[in-house]
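Record 1 of the preview.
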Amino acid sequence: MTDAMIRSAMLPAALAFVCVATSAFAQAQLVKATPAAGAAVAEATEIRLEFNESVDPRFSGLTLTAPNRVNVELGEPEVESGDPRVLVVPIANVLAPGAYAVHWRVVSFDTHSAEGEFRFTVKP
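->
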């Protein structure tokens, strides 16, 4: 095989690798949640989600599902003052004891979306 043939065969492979790697790292990734996934807490007045990049609160949010499978009333999502990587969603009412599910969806400022789910428990 000639050098030109080898280079022409390597170019598509290199481009495919770059495209896959770029798309894999283009989404916001959850770094930390409060309450934490799997945690047992005495109370929760808000859900705080920290991501590895800035998120747009206008297109981001979450649902909080109570033990009876009813969605909990939440306030408007906002980013933390001074840190647009942290999405804060206030919980409107006191949570009863039990297991809760958080399903989040965020859009980063580069318009990529990501979503996930975790659970936590409010202790009696």
